[in-house]
Design a protein that fits this description.
The protein contains 11 helices and 10 strands. It has a 6-stranded parallel β-sheet, sandwiched between helices. A 4-stranded mixed β-sheet has the order 1-4-2-3.
Length: 263
């Protein structure tokens, strides 16, 4: 059992709390049973798996799956695990995994043959992004495109907020303005959301191939992205309310599309 905070492996793992170190090592930091289980379910490879004895006893089946797919296995004390974790109350397991720009053999970049998708411009909050990924997977979205100036797709909070769906949802960080133009030329309905639109979102025909463009939490969509859209819609709110949270707004739009298609 690793009990020393000065152990080289422990010291290396503690560095991964810093975004620049995760980027430098090209790894993901997976924290918690749910994420480890989700990674194992799709066969996502693990590098270093750290777990406490208590966790091993509580989750014997997940433990077996996890050690089968891990390169290095370390039994650690609760104090060591806490020092590695970015969460306040870790539940007993943490792993590192290789980062992939395109999730090879697990989740590919979104296809241009899209029926329902989301584009996110300059999204900054990792919790919002993780929630959107989770919602997109729940409605069966074909893909999610993220602008390069948005929060890192591999941020630990994004992974946790996705509730394991990060491994299943096709995603890519790209120039979304160019992608929006490409999709529109191929006949996909590119829908921008703005408070100044004349059409409420439920009035639009969402049974046709559709991609929603969602903007920054504070500034909304840029003029460039607005020009790329086929149509604009609004989510009506009471006069005293400036706007809705972007994750909630995205959920409303995606589930309206699902409602129309399920009729």
């Amino acid at each position: 059992m690793l009990t020393s905070l000065q152990n080289p492996t422990v010291k290396q793992l503690r560095k991964l709390q810093q975004p620049k170190e995760r980027k430098k090592q090209a790894v993901l930091l997976l924290e918690g049973t749910h994420l480890i289980e989700a990674a194992c379910e799709v066969g996502y490879p693990l590098q270093v798996l750290c777990y406490t004895e208590d966790w091993q006893q509580r989750y014997p089946e997940i433990y077996k799956d996890a050690i089968a797919g891990a390169e290095q296995i370390e039994l650690v004390s609760a104090d060591v695990l806490k020092s590695i974790a970015s969460t306040v109350t870790p539940d007993g397991v943490i792993a590192t995994a290789p980062r992939r720009n395109v999730w090879e053999a697990i989740s590919s970049a979104p296809s241009d043959d899209v029926s329902l998708g989301i584009m996110l411009e300059t999204l900054q909050d990792p919790g919002n992004l993780g929630t959107i990924i989770r919602t997109a997977a729940a409605v069966g979205s074909d893909g999610l495109w993220l602008s390069s100036d948005s929060v890192d797709l591999g941020h630990p909070k994004v992974l946790r907020a996705s509730a394991g769906q990060w491994f299943r949802q096709p995603m890519a960080t790209i120039d979304i303005a160019e992608k929006a133009k490409e999709l529109k030329e191929k006949g996909v309905q590119v829908v921008a959301t703005t408070a100044t639109a004349d059409t409420d979102y439920w009035q639009l025909d969402l049974t046709k191939p559709t991609v929603f463009i969602m903007g920054n939490e504070g500034a909304g969509l840029s003029d460039e992205l607005m020009k790329c859209a086929s149509v604009s819609v609004k989510i009506p709110v009471m006069p005293a309310v400036e706007s809705l949270n972007v994750a909630i707004s995205t959920a409303l739009l995606l589930y309206e599309a699902k409602r129309q298609r399920d009729r």
